[in-house]
Amino acid sequence: MKILLVAPSYYPQVNTSYFPLGLAYVGAYAKGKGHQVDGLNLNHYPNHERYDLLVREIKKNNYDAVGITGLTVCFNEIEKLIKLIRETVPWMPIILGGGITSCEAELVMLTLKPDYMVIGEGEIIFANLLQAIAGTNPIDKLAGIWHWAGGNPIYNGKGPVVADLNTLPEPDLDLMEIKKYLALQGEAQISYHLVRYDMGKSIPMLASRSCPFQCTFCHHAGMGKYKTHDINMVVSRIERYIKEYGISNVSIYDELFSADKRRLRYFCEILLEKKLNIRWFCQLRVDQLDQESLFLMKRAGCNFISLGFESGSDTILRSMQKKIKVIDIANAVKMLRKAKIGFQANFLFGDPAETNETLQESLRFQQENELYFVDWSAVIPYAGTQIFDYAWRKGLIKDKLQFIRNQCDISDYLYRHQINMTSMSDVEFKDWYIKLREINDLNHRKRSALVQGVVSSGKWQSRLAIECPSCGYLLKTDFRYPLEAREDGNIYLDAPIGMLGVNFLCPNCCRKMHLQPKHIPHFRTFFKRFQEKAEQIKLAKRDVVIIPAMDRYFSVFKEDILLNNLRIKAVLDSRKSRVGEKFLNRTVKLLDNNNIKKNKDAVFIVLPWVEYGKAVDALIDAGIDSQMILSWNQSFEPAGQRDNLAK
Length: 647
Hints:
With 647 residues, the protein is of the alpha/beta class.
């Protein structure tokens, strides 16, 4: 049979956020059974090109079936792809697999309406299904799939599992466009969250599947029991990838790279023996670490690890079934810093056992251990997790389908649809969520990079020499800021411009340091201009209306821009959730025509806001002179602000 395997994207832009290794395994196995398999990795194409590309591929090739995979957070996108395929070639069988099919399977089947769904490890079941579609085997006897019978979805029961990963063919990376994936990578990893200059070209690998632990917020996507690839096979592939693709870094995608310290050490020893000179990243548990192993990992090229901290309270760790204690985390942090291995971890807010007391425990633990870059995130009850089942039993999830759809836009979910599973009141819960996000921003500044040598080298670019506050290493970089700035000199304005500082990983000690926007030469001017205009308003003794009631970044904004002594008359906001709240000691009122006109003689100061454009338009439409508007975002527009504001 001739098959097309499609990897949907979780982001609208071209990205290398993940590589569909699962499809690479499934495709290789299907090829080994005699099928012709093509792949389409939609991550490598911008949103406006993806759908046309899929249609063209389907029309020009006479495929016998299309396979799609993804997690539940890709639910809405997969729905679009299925509808598009149906419109293009209505008769072609559509097979859905991946994590999305391993939880709430009947709901997914009824809503997305693929012809078949593969449940569990895909290689064997998918190949068996292709044989059945070709007429070799009866569908109704095929284990591990959902199918349709008389208009009803039917599950045939648990299917075969891969007993030994080493018996699988090597994943077909080229099928999923690995060369394009590598070509899209820069030599550095650059994001607000973390900038690393030690990455080079990085290739993904799997050395194991699943995880033997059962944390309440985690779902292993139908991967069954924890199992591993032979380490010699893993290293052999790395050796070949270095020669074939010219990589310098390996990202080990495993949920848990090794549950066995001996296996981890053996991996390091072989890398050193072969002198591969490769850097690598993996995910481990804090209770698996010891100082000797970490020193060995460092020598073998590991300089960054992802770890699950989740909380600084033993009460919460027990509730999450983490099987670790706070002391384990503290010991791991000490050992990692001594070995000079960087780490990424988060604290999670919102477990059902969370209280004001447990949060205070975690905050104290965070400060005592200088965990300034271990950010606070929310516990998200994804379908398939114990915490999802808990929220459903408690009636906190009213509609499973809508809840899953909401999580496809995680920012919108956290802002509008996040549920309170704790015993706190909803007001307490919301206040804590806002406060913890602000604590993230302020914590980063506690380990600020020391800016030594600076010079502006372009409209949005500076040559920087920044000193690591931990080890004194001097990092030199030609850095563009904000990251939304484009080569053509334009900038994406509908963002909290200048509020997000940038976290750098020190190449020497592998600890993180924070670069504040106000310290970047080409950007410092904007802070200075805005402050000068605020001072003009103070001197003129004008009444001021503040827009909006900031629920993020205000803590850092007021450190950089002094708003004291302003004669604040009112605070307006278009978001109903903020109306009635207190901000700058004023009760927030709705940003509407009536409240604008009530304050028409004031100066309107629009703070950093993604919806600043709507606010400015509303002010202009209500008759407010543009000279009476001081907008942070608008000050980055080419025309700038008029200098005679408020004079």
